[in-house]
Each structure stands twice: as C-alpha cells, then as structure tokens.
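Field log, afternoon session.

UNIT: design team B
ACTIVITY: writing a sequence onto a fixed backbone
BACKBONE:
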C-alpha cells in the first residue's frame, strides 16, 4: 500500500475566520501515533474541536478539525506532522511503510546563557521567542540580581537540529535582541553534555507536604470546594457493543490539550485505538467515543485492567496539571507540575503559559526553575516560580493561582 509523500498530511485552511481548518493524515499506524500528533498540534497552539480516527492496525486515517490563529505557520506544522508519522522509504515518488529499526538518537542539549536588564514580562517574551524558534526548554534557572539584571540559563534542544551552527546561534541572538532591544547585555549558546544537564538543577528535594498534596495519584472520593480541577468527568467502558473492541466513552469539559491528555494516557498503557470520534458540543461540553484493543489485538476483559485504565483517565482529565501557591520561608512560590510521558516527553507550552499569566497580572518573577522528579511510580516535570513581591504582593495569592490554572487549561 503506498501513497504520495505530499498526501501523508493534507491541511485545508479555513476560508472564514473562526471556522475550523481541517488536517487529514493518512499513513502507516503505530501505537501512540495519535498522542504524538496531538502533541505537535498543541505545540502550535491549535485547539482540536473535532476528530475522527480509524485504523486497521497497519494503516490509519485521521481527521482533525482545528481552530488556529492568523499567525499559525501551517507549512511548518505540516512538516512536523509528516516527520512524526512512521518512517517511509521512497520509490518512484511512492511512500511505503517501513518499521522503525531503532529508536532515534536523543537530541543534543545546549545551554543558552542570557543576561539582560529586567522588566515586567521579560521572561515571557524570551520564552515566546524560544517557542517560536522551535527550541524546547528542558530545564531553566532564572535569577534576578540586586542591580535589576536577570541571568537566564535555559537548557534547550533544537527541533530543527541546527543549533550547533553559527548561523542558527546568530538567529537566536537576533530574535532575542529584537524583543529586548538595548536591554540585552549578552547571549551565549554552547553544547553541554548530559552530566551537566543532570546536575544543573541542584537538589531535587521537594517538601513532603507538597508531594503528598500535589501528587496524590488516587482518585479523590470528593473534590474539595474551590479545588483546581476540571469537574464532571465521566469515563465508562463497555464490552458488549463490539465483538472485538472495548468501547471507552468520555464526557467532560474541554480544556487545552484534552485530546493529548487522553492519547498520552492510552499510549502509556500501550492501548491501540481502532476507531475514535471526538466532538465539542455547546458550552465546551466534550464527548469522546473510542474503540480500543490491547497490544495483543484483544479487548480489555480483565476488570482490574479496566478499573486501572478508567481511574487513570479520570484522574488525568480531572487534574492534567497540578498548581499550588506555597510559602517558601518568607517568600511566596508557585508550583506547577505535569506528568511526563513514558517516552520522556514533557507537556508543551507549560512555561510559556505560566509566564504569560504572570505578564497579564503584571507580577514579576524573581527566580524560576524547571526540574524532573520521580514521585511514586511516575516522573513529573515541576516548575518552581519564586514571585517577585517587591514592596509587597499586590495581587492576591489565590488570584495568581487561579490565573495560572485558567491559562494552562485554556479557560482564560
């Protein structure tokens, strides 16, 4: 079975503003492909408002209806989507399925050392530049000096794999200069080894009170009033409607990355989707139907496996991220955490959304760190932001917490 390479991904842009654009994907299948595609769509800031997925286990056909913006780089999006589809070998312009022979080499990690005079919103503007240039932030350490200078250390990888070249380094420096102007003091980029990246964050200690509350992996019997969760999540499983598949039905409120959260959970459980349909109704009410099988091609009949998958889906949709404001001595610290995929990938745009929320609140960041922590049986990406209180915190703590949560969930 073969298709023209240009037909692997077809994007039909909306004719009118506000209407969805249509992304059609026709390629060989692999477990977790839906997760990888949804992750890229999330990286580009698009919202999936409807989706259809069908596969025979070897070849898949996927259609996403997405809402973008005038700034959406559709050509680059297509390139990234094609790149994540299973590898193909070409003959006479026809692409054929070729299984992966070995996992890809981990990307090189670079240290971006950026020094600049401080101002409100600076960290978000710098983060926005890195996102625009497809530089993925793996870890970060941001600090402010008494003379109102900031030293930002970003450990980054380059999606384009060009950061080892002087031309690419100059491009990054020029973009940062354009957004900071004369305030920029210096910008240096160098490749670092894995041992530097591993020890860059110092202690991985998190207070036990934080880990117990924020990283509770059990479904709560009742959600406390005012808790930052996506309420009214229903997950049901049925083995009677299909002779060969388990039907998973999900009803919940939409949030940014909803389909990604579902797909990454199924990917971590090695679940294959044979057919699926996703749609958003009125008031951001979502309905998802998924016909799934295990890696052996059979439906899920073991009650314990059903309960485990159901509980994990409910938990991931109730609390796809964890947000809390805590005291750090005399200071105030914001903590945001998201689970890391088993593949090692973190959630896209989290730091971008955090810094955007602070910019909108006109609240400064004194220091920030990103690190990974193994808590329970899961790895988490944890963002720790020490708030610049200056002469006193002008914005109430609960307002900061709520604004960050809404920004991350796409409810702002």
């Amino acid at each position: 079975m073969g298709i023209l390479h240009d037909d692997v991904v077809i994007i039909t842009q909306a004719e009118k503003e506000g209407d969805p654009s249509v992304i059609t994907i026709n390629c060989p299948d692999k477990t977790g492909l839906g997760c990888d595609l949804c992750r890229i769509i999330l990286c580009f800031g698009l919202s999936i408002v409807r989706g259809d997925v069908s596969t025979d286990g070897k070849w898949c056909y996927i259609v996403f209806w997405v809402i973008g913006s005038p700034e959406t780089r559709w050509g680059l999006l297509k390139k990234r989507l094609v790149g994540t589809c299973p590898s193909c070998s070409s003959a006479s312009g026809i692409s054929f399925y070729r299984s992966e022979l070995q996992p890809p080499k981990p990307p090189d990690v670079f240290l971006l050392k950026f020094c600049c005079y401080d101002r409100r919103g600076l960290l978000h503007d710098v983060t926005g530049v890195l996102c625009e240039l497809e530089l993925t932030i793996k870890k970060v350490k941001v600090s402010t000096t008494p003379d109102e200078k900031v030293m930002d250390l970003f450990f980054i990888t380059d999606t384009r794999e060009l950061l080892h070249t002087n031309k690419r380094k100059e491009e990054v420096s020029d973009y940062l200069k354009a957004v900071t102007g004369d305030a920029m003091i210096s910008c240096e980029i160098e490749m670092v080894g894995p041992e530097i990246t591993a020890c860059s964050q110092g202690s991985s200690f998190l207070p036990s009170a934080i880990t117990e509350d924020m990283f509770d992996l059990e479904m709560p019997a009742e959600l406390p009033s005012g808790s930052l969760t996506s309420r009214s999540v229903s997950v049901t499983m049925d083995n009677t409607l299909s002779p060969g598949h388990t039907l998973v039905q999900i009803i919940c409120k939409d949030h940014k990355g909803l389909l990604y959260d579902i797909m990454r959970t199924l990917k971590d459980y090695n679940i294959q989707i044979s057919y699926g349909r996703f749609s958003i109704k009125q008031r951001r009410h979502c309905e998802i139907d998924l016909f799934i099988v295990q890696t052996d091609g059979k439906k899920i009949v073991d009650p314990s496996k059903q309960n485990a998958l159901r509980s994990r889906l409910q938990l991931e949709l109730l609390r796809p991220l964890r947000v809390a404001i805590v005291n750090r001595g005399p200071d105030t610290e914001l903590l945001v955490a998201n689970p890391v995929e088993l593949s090692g990938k973190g959630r896209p745009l989290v730091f971008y959304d955090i810094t955007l929320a602070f910019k909108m609140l006109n609240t400064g960041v004194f220091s920030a760190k990103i690190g990974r922590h193994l808590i329970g049986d899961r790895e988490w990406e944890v963002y720790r932001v020490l708030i610049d209180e200056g002469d006193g915190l002008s914005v109430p703590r609960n307002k900061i917490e709520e604004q960050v949560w809404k920004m991350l969930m796409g409810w702002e």
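LOG NOTE: The domain at 2-97 is CATH 3.30.70.260 (Alpha-Beta Plaits).
NEXT ACTIVITY: expression trials, pending approval
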